[in-house]
Write a structure and sequence with these properties.
By secondary structure, the chain is an all-alpha fold. It has one domain: Rhopdopsin 7-helix transmembrane proteins, CATH 1.20.1070. Helices cover 73% and strands 0% of the residues. The chain has eleven helices and no strands. The longest helix is centred in the middle third of the chain and has 35 residues. The C terminus is likely disordered. InterPro entries: RTA1. It is found in: Membrane. It is a multi-pass membrane protein.
Length: 330
């Protein structure tokens, strides 16, 4: 059997080249990609509706943009089923699927501020707005790093060259994202330990009913699942891009399906099913108003919460509890 002549990837087609020499290294599965396109379309519709219903503008915008990018990414993969050497399909896929998790991460980051307020802002080491500003800034930095990676990959691919430099630039952005997510998890765990240390009697009494509701507990569990899924996906992408777009892992569709598509699908669906607007309920508006009352963290003496001893925190919040109970009875 005669070997096929070497042809520039830009001129490849089914007659001239093997599919293993395509941008993907395989022919993308049509049923799989249609399935995930449908899932992210459902998730997009749900997040837009829930954002309007519960007025969760920041969270809703982040999640909706992320789902839209996922839709575009899987549309690109569907186009690649017909022609896996298609440059437009490759560009759409790497930018859509590659950048969407950055916006998912931003939505997840925004939840921590409200969780801190729900349990008691005074218990936190830093004031609630610090979490929002710091992690949104981290996400912007990650996006600024990853976006040029996609552009460089596109330029290299348009010249018929393996997009190695773009892959490594994108890799650095994802590494930064994993670092930020790890810090977010660490601060969340640190706040949980502080809550446990001061005891339930020190938690903000205004939100006691909400905290005890199964809806809020389900939201916290869903947020944990979503964060774990995002973390698994990010670690997978680090391993994938370490070998570049032509590496073994980048050309393994089964790994992509399980560690990329399934993980992000889980994230998008659980955050819609157990939406923060549903989890916080009527207190979402009250918590948002309380958040707005805090000064911007870069102002003088506005970064750290007052460093009270545990006993002082308990005494102060117990007084607030008594006042709240008296008002509630009236």
């Amino acid at each position: 059997m005669s070997e096929r002549p070497r042809v520039s990837i830009l001129k490849c087609n089914w007659d001239l080249c093997s599919v293993s020499a395509s941008w993907f290294g395989y022919r993308p599965s049509l049923p799989m990609n249609i399935t995930f396109l449908a899932i992210f379309t459902i998730a997009f519709t749900a997040h837009v509706y829930l954002a309007v219903r519960y007025k969760t503008h920041g969270f809703g915008i982040c999640m909706s943009i992320a789902c839209f990018l996922e839709i575009s990414g899987y549309a690109g993969r569907i186009l690649a089923y017909t022609n896996p050497w298609s440059l437009p399909a490759f560009f759409i896929q790497i930018n859509g699927v590659g950048l969407a998790p950055t916006f998912f991460a931003a939505g997840i980051y925004l939840c921590l501020t409200r969780i801190v307020i729900a349990y008691g802002a005074r218990i936190s080491r830093v004031q609630p707005k610090v979490y929002t500003y710091f992690f949104v800034l981290c996400d912007i930095i990650s996006l600024v790093i990853q976006a040029p990676g996609g552009a460089l990959s596109s330029i290299s691919a348009s010249q018929g060259k393996p997009p190695k430099l773009g892959a490594y630039v994108g890799l650095s952005g994802i590494c930064f994202q994993v670092l930020a997510l790890s810090i977010w998890l660490g601060l969340g765990a640190e706040f949980a330990l502080r809550c446990r240390r001061v005891g339930m009697e020190a938690w903000d009494p205004k939100y006691e009913k909400m905290r005890n509701s199964w809806r809020f507990k389900a939201f916290l569990a869903a947020l944990g699942v979503a964060t774990a899924a995002l973390y698994v996906r990010s670690v997978y992408r680090i391993a994938e891009l370490s070998g570049g777009y032509t590496g073994h892992l980048a050309k393994d569709e089964l790994a992509f399906c399980i560690l990329e598509a399934v993980m992000i699908a889980i994230l998008s669906l659980v955050t819609a099913a157990f939406h923060p607007g549903y989890g916080f309920g009527e207190d979402y508006v009250l918590i948002t108003e309380q958040k707005a009352s805090y000064p911007r963290p870069w102002k003088k003496n506005a970064f750290f919460m007052k460093d009270l001893k545990t006993e002082e925190v308990i005494i102060e919040l117990n007084e607030a509890r008594k006042s709240f109970v008296r008002t509630d009875r009236v």
